[in-house]
Structure formats: structure tokens, C-alpha cells
Design goal:
354 residues; 2 helices; Lipocalin; 35% strand; four-stranded antiparallel β-sheet
Amino acid sequence: MFRLFRIQVGFACLLCVLFAPVGCNKQSETDSVRHKTPIGEKTGQNTESSKTVAAKDSTKQTEEAEPVSNEHLVVTADWPQFRGANRDGRSTETGLLESWPKQGPPLVWTFAKAGVGYSGPAIVGDRLYIMGAREGTEFLIAINTKNGEEEWAVKIGPMFTWKGNNWNRGPSATPTIAGDHIYALGGQGILVCVDKDGKEVWRVDLPAKLGAVVNNIGGAPEKIGWGFAWSPLVDGDHLICQPGGKQGTLAALNKHTGEVVWRSQSYNDEASYASPVVAYIDGVKQYINLTNEGLTSVSPKDGSVLWRWERKPPYNDCVIGTPIVWGNYVYASVGFGNGCDLIQIKNKKVTPPL
């Protein structure tokens, strides 16, 4: 038995449907596991016995993208952050149906209060977390995946929008789950940490406290652009975020308190809408981020620049896609006719685009 989740936040609807693989009967439904499909992502299925597998032990360190460190046991079927457990859009699940029943999968439940926005879901255990705006306020929402009931909703801040905005409203980031805490970024740049019971632990107003600036290319308002859209990255005791601006494009916060640990002072592009990733290249751990100016890698220790590739000319529209790392190759893609670029890193030096 599989469960498939479909989220339509912009239309205030979250849909869950249930279907069985060939050869399964109704008695097997109680032993089923979750099959989760966030917006734009694709996963398969796994067995309940995999629940004892720790995410940090399930993937050995290689020169490919290193899994983000989480402190909890992650079911293979879990999707604890943007683009999955390793932030690479890949799932280890197998066994999907090659075709659906003619009548389609039956509806299990519908959640009609997801609100307005472009937030994607994060799922761990029997909880689905998503953000949406309701009546002018953005919320982090927890939903029980067994019955589609809302368990709690925490206010983040005012709904992102602006006068004359005909494109996007509400939050755009995906929540990040690490241990017993959930981290969520609102469209206005308010970053919150709550526990699994919905109790707020801390919050940081990035524009007010960190001088955050989003690239407003394309006609959006100055400093806030089309809203804060990157998803928080938790690595060890740090939460890596992309405030952007003169104080540093990237920042590491203490994930327990929200206090600033470091800023990438020598890397001060305005924030993009892409999310940073953690990777190992030639055995060196690093955070890689994409902005209009190009790709930049910084040290997890202090935010100092390890290497930088400047795109010439700079991307001339919204940078949204998260970079993909494979071995010592880094791939970037930007729409609106900008195309894609593939670079290779050797000994912290960048080779020309291939």
C-alpha cells in the first residue's frame, strides 16, 4: 500500500490519495508505508523495517554530495527538507507501480486549509509540515498524515506581497526538520524554530537583524525582491541561511538559539531564490550557493570563500534552481533564456564551463 501526497498550496488544497501495488490486498494496508511526493519531486516506496536506519549512517561519505547531518532516525521514506534527506532530489525507495488502476487511486483525505504560497512539504514519521498564508498571515502548519487533520499552526509573520504584485504571495520556502525541531522561513524573511509540539523556540527577523537583501531583478521591490524563498539548511549545530547583502551572502546561525556564528564577509552578493547545499569535493566539506553573479563555495568553519566562479555575463533574471553537485562537478541552471552551466573543481580551482 502506498500513500501519495499532492500539495496545491496556491489553491489552498492538499490532497492525499491511496493506492495498492499489484498483488496487494486490503489486509496488507495496515503494514503499508508512506509514499510521499512533494511538489516537483518524485519518490518510490520502502518497507517499515527500514525505520531503524539512521540517515547519517545510510550513506557513506564520498566525493559526491554528503548527506546533511540530522540528529534523528530518518525513515528512508521520510522527506525532512527541501529536495529530500540529502537535498539532492533523490529517493532510495523502489517498487513503484508501472501503471495506476484504471479508475485511479482512491482519495484518502483532503486538507483544504494549506493557505496561499509556494511552500513544499517536509515529512517525517506521521507528520507533514508545510507553510501557507491565511487571511494575511503566514503559518507553519503540522498535519497528521494518517487522517489529514491539522495538529497545530504557528504564526510566522505577515503574508509576503506588495502593491501591484500579480505573481506570488505568501511563503515560498520548504520547512526543514532536524531532530525534534522544525525550521521555517517566511516570505518576509522571518526565520522561526519550533519544537514538534508547535512551541516557538526562537525567531530571527533577517532584514532587521542581519541586514538581509534579496536581489529584486525583474521589477520586484528593493531589498526584498520576490520574497525570501531559499530553504534552511541544518548541518550539525549550525543552521545555514542566505540573508544576502553587504554583511555576507551566507550566515551560520546557532540552531539552538538563532544567534549568528559567522557571516561570509568576503562573499556579499544579494540573496537569490536558490537554496544552499552541503557537499564534499576532493574530500573538502563546503557549502555551495548560487546567485546572479555565479557559484560560490565557502568553508563551514568560518564562511571564508574556498572558490568562486563568476558568471559572465551575470544571470539576468531570477535565480531559483538549487545547484547540483556530482563528484567534483557543479551544475547550475537558470530560466528565462539564461541556460545552464557545468563547472569542474580541481584543487579548489574552477575550470571553465564545459
